[in-house]
Specification:
The structure holds two protein chains of two kinds. Chain A is an all-alpha fold. Chain A is built from twelve helices and three strands, in the order E-H-E-E-H-H-H-H-H-H-H-H-H-H-H. The longest helix of chain A is centred in the C-terminal third of the chain and has 32 residues. By secondary structure, chain B is an all-alpha fold. Helices cover 73% and strands 1% of the residues of chain B. Classes of the chains: A mainly alpha, B mainly alpha. At the A-B interface, strand 1, helix 1, helix 3, helix 4 and helix 5 of A face helix 1, helix 2, helix 3, helix 6 and strand 1 of B. Strand 1 of chain A pairs parallel with strand 1 of chain B.
Chain lengths: 288, 309
């Protein structure tokens, strides 16, 4: 759409600017403030320069949390994206099955995140959970509270359960926009099922898939509530992701300086990812 | 859009173009049959219904277990392993509906969620209109800045929020949580509404202005009805994301505005005993989403993708 240049449009944006500015800029300034100061208590602060940043960037704790978070994000992407495409390809296109699938599949997306954690916490318990009990009956030693591998598997399966539907719904939205004529042409050319997928369906899903990958990556990069409820970051710190570590540092130990420095580094990473997301989105919009 | 090395696809486009538009409704039955066959053979096998069915079973199992538990007594939950409650009880739900510390959690959650939804949509509407219709100084930067707030980790903001709102004496009030959730809900609403508004042709605005409508009158009388489904979807997603968020809501409240989600975590950590009540509370938090999901089913992908599908 051709847009007209009109700086008066600023007045329409002003309420949003004030509201989000109040909720975003002021808190961020506090964080910046803490990140360059040190204190001996009693609200007496003095300038400490970039020492907190150096300390955080060189600390093993931060590196490990970052690596754990990256490993988590890539694992769930590697599972959710192919699985989501596969399910979307097999979803019904018309009839009563469509609303049933859409409603039931979207249900996990709308459950409060801590309830998602509670559901899996209960579901996986060896004494009262269906999953834990079944695995124990099969002779598998499974206890997410003490075994790091079991904890990781639980957290990943929980995320797959929680968010794969998002990928499915996005891919489905891309698939239903393909006109029948494309399939007819493929039929005339004698295309195999693989070629239909590779040359018709995948290109049509290209953009929604990009959105799905970026959204899933960013949301998994700031995951907090679900693993916190299930494992509390444990056993040890094997499932302590960036957000969990940050909250532990800021609210648990009240190490304001390092926590603020870590917040800023964390935020810069997110900013970079948002920029990638924005570029993809606006390229898509201009092609719309 | 299409890959030029693919003759099949090009032929398909050519077919679409050479067919006159008027001929489209009475497409030859052969074409219909072919398309149907294609859908059957090219894309799907006879067993394709198995995949979504299995996936839905996987999704429903943990929820089923929670519902199952919520109707059991604690002795049955801990003592025996049954797939269905042997003597179903409503005691767990009764506890929640009669104990103030439990049901007040629901009331608190609903109050701040509704406040947040109203504020977010109200301020997002004019802004989304500006972004969809006009270019102005710094518009792209502003749009990007909004997005960064949607993507910002709540963990970064939890502590600064606590300090900011205690400076204003707002800690443990509903409005504090509602305002804090605007951080990610206003950008979400702006992005979703902008997506819907860009689908409305600009000629409608111009015609209305020529007819002598002022901007506010045009916006309320003509434009808002046109994008009513968009407003509904934006409101739904604001409601949902405020409802599912816990970290900020928990940090900003102590007792008077404590959300239900927070009440639940307290029970888990303190006693870890009353599993039945915990399960019942969980089931009750799922219900609001489950009730309205049917109405937004076709827009869910669009909403989660920030209005961009």
């Amino acid at each position: 759409m051709e847009k007209t240049w009109n700086n008066k449009a600023w007045f329409l944006v002003l309420p949003v600017l004030l509201l989000v500015g109040f909720s975003a800029v002021i808190p961020l300034m506090t964080v910046v403030n803490y990140s360059v100061q040190d204190t001996f208590g009693n609200n007496v602060f003095f300038w400490s320069g970039l020492t907190w940043f150096e300390q955080v960037l060189h600390s093993r704790r931060f590196h490990e949390a970052l690596l754990r978070n990256l490993a988590f994000s890539f694992t769930i992407l590697a599972i959710q994206i192919p699985l989501g495409i596969f399910i979307a390809l097999n979803m019904p296109r018309k009839g009563i099955g469509v609303p049933i699938c859409l409603v039931l599949m979207a249900l996990p997306l709308l459950i409060p995140w801590n309830v998602v954690g509670t559901i899996w916490q209960v579901f996986g318990r060896v004494d009262i959970g269906l999953l834990g009990r079944t695995l124990a009956a099969m002779g598998i030693n499974y206890n997410y509270a003490t075994d790091p591998v079991a904890a990781w598997v639980t957290v990943i399966v929980m995320d797959v359960w929680h968010w794969t539907s998002l990928v499915v719904l996005l891919c489905y939205a891309g698939l239903v926009s393909i006109p029948d004529a494309y399939y007819q042409a493929a039929k005339i050319d004698g295309a195999s099922r693989w070629s239909v997928f590779r040359y018709i369906q995948l290109p049509k899903m290209h953009r929604v898939l990009l959105i799905a990958v970026l959204l899933r990556f960013m949301d998994s990069f700031m995951i907090y509530t679900e693993p916190f409820v299930v494992t509390g970051g444990g056993p040890g710190s094997t499932t302590t992701f960036l957000s969990i570590d940050l909250v532990k540092m800021a609210i648990g130990q009240f190490d304001l300086g390092p926590a603020a420095a870590m917040s800023i580094i964390y935020f810069l990473i997110i900013l970079l990812l948002s920029w990638v997301f924005y570029t993809v989105m606006t390229n898509y919009d201009s092609g719309r | 859009m299409t890959n030029s090395t693919q003759p099949g696809i090009l032929k398909g486009e050519a077919m679409m173009r050479t067919q006159p538009a008027a001929a489209a409704p009475k497409r030859a039955p052969f074409d219909e049959a072919l398309a149907r066959k294609m859908r059957r053979r090219g894309q799907k096998s006879r067993y394709s219904w198995l995949v979504p069915t299995l996936y839905i079973i996987f999704l429903m199992l943990p929820i089923y277990w929670l519902v199952n538990m919520s109707f059991k007594t604690n002795q049955e939950i801990l003592g025996s392993f049954t797939l269905f409650p042997s003597n179903p009880t409503l005691r767990n739900y009764m506890v929640i509906f009669t104990d103030y510390s439990w049901y007040s959690g629901y009331i608190n959650s609903i109050i701040y969620v509704v406040m947040n939804t109203v504020i977010s949509v109200a301020v997002a509407l004019p802004a989304a209109y500006a972004f969809s219709r006009y270019r102005f100084l710094g518009d792209k930067h502003l749009f990007f800045w909004l997005l960064t707030n949607r993507m910002a980790p709540p963990a970064v903001f939890a502590l600064p929020f606590l300090q900011l709102y205690s400076a204003f004496g707002l800690v443990d009030t509903h409005i504090a949580v509602a305002l804090a959730h605007c951080l990610f809900n206003v950008p979400l609403a702006v992005w979703i509404l902008e997506g819907f508004m860009s689908g409305v042709p600009k000629e409608i605005d111009e015609t209305a202005y020529i007819d002598g409508y002022s901007f506010p009158r045009f916006f309320v009388k003509i434009f808002m009805p046109l994008i009513s489904s968009g407003i509904g979807v934006a409101a739904f997603f604001c409601f949902m994301f405020s409802w599912v968020e816990l970290l900020i809501a928990r940090t900003l409240t102590t007792t008077a505005a404590k959300p239900i989600a927070s009440t639940m975590t307290r029970t888990v950590s303190a006693s870890g005993l009353d599993w039945g009540v915990l399960a019942a509370a969980g089931v009750l938090t799922i219900i609001p989403g489950a009730l309205v999901i049917y109405f937004v089913r076709n827009y869910i992908a669009k909403g989660f993708a920030l209005g961009r599908v």
